[in-house]
Design brief:
The protein is an alpha+beta fold. It is 39% helix and 19% strand. The protein has a single domain, classed as UreE, C-terminal domain (Alpha-Beta Plaits), CATH 3.30.70.790. The longest helix is centred in the N-terminal third of the chain and has 13 residues.
Length: 74
Amino acid sequence: MVEIIRTNDVVVLGFVQSLLEHADIPVLVADGHISVLEGSIGAFPRRMLVPEDHAAQARRLIAEAGLAAELRHA
């Protein structure tokens, strides 16, 4: 799995997750539980992971959606 996004913005996470799932790209949002435990104060961002063989396609879709600034560099 490759991390493509790390953010506290649940709107961005939801949008990107929906975008990737619609393109049949498996998505794992990691660290969601710790984010809830810490009271959602933003101390622990959530990470979005995709399989390595889907990473290039996922990055392209995210960039085309206007969210290139959210992408983690490989």
